[in-house]
């Protein structure tokens, strides 16, 4: 879904690049990397996930799934991070050279497992949200998958669910290792591409997890 019609019609009046994002969101991280690599300036709109700001009616009018990131470029709304990084880079960018749709699609699919394992192995020991914030999130957020995910996290993820995510993640990194096995410096060849950008936050996140 590279571009959608915004529910909040005021977005159409915005000029330049506007990014709604969160610091620890891996999908937000890949967008910020491309913006930095392309030397593009943008208006930053941080979304505080800990306070449940992505469950607000105002934000869900920007991103109907209530997740980050979301990008507006001269009034055009783009909401999927893989689509956003391709849009920001542009077809003539060196970052597009050699970038495989298969590798990008695989990185996108991997985000669900990354989210699950991040919550289990990185966020599990963090202070829990207040009952007020948690209840407001469940009541106000319209994304059924996401509200169920937070309920499952609070109750404790099923062990098999965790193990299957670990297995798929191992397979993903085996795939990346095989791609690098010919001695190339980057995933697509001898220069950095969107493939590296798409997977960089995942590698960083698992490093944080130890």
TrEMBL record:
<protein>
    <submittedName>
        <fullName>Glutathione S-transferase family protein</fullName>
    </submittedName>
</protein>
<dbReference type="Pfam" id="PF13409">
    <property type="entry name" value="GST_N_2"/>
</dbReference>
<dbReference type="InterPro" id="IPR040079">
    <property type="entry name" value="Glutathione_S-Trfase"/>
</dbReference>
<feature type="domain" description="GST N-terminal">
    <location>
        <begin position="15"/>
        <end position="96"/>
    </location>
</feature>
<dbReference type="InterPro" id="IPR004045">
    <property type="entry name" value="Glutathione_S-Trfase_N"/>
</dbReference>
């Amino acid at each position: 879904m590279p571009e959608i019609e915004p529910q909040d019609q005021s977005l159409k009046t915005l000029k330049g690049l506007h990014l709604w994002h969160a610091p620890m969101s891996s999908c937000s991280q890949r967008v910020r990397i491309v913006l930095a690599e392309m030397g593009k300036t943008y208006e930053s709109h941080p979304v505080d996930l800990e306070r449940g700001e992505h469950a607000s009616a105002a934000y869900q009018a920007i991103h109907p799934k209530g997740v980050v990131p979301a990008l507006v470029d001269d009034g055009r709304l783009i909401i999927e991070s893989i689509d956003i990084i391709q849009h920001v880079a542009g077809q003539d960018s060196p970052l597009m050279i050699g970038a495989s749709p298969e590798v990008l699609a695989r990185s996108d699919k991997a985000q669900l497992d990354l989210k699950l394992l991040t919550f289990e192995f990185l966020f599990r020991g963090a202070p829990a949200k207040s009952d007020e914030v948690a209840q407001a999130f469940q009541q106000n957020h319209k994304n059924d998958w996401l509200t169920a995910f937070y309920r499952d996290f609070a109750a404790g993820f099923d062990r098999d669910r965790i193990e299957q995510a670990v297995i798929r993640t191992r397979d993903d990194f085996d795939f990346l290792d095989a791609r690098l096995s010919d001695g190339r410096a980057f995933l697509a060849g001898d220069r950095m591409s969107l493939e590296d950008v798409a997977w960089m936050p995942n590698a960083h996140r698992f490093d944080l997890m130890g």
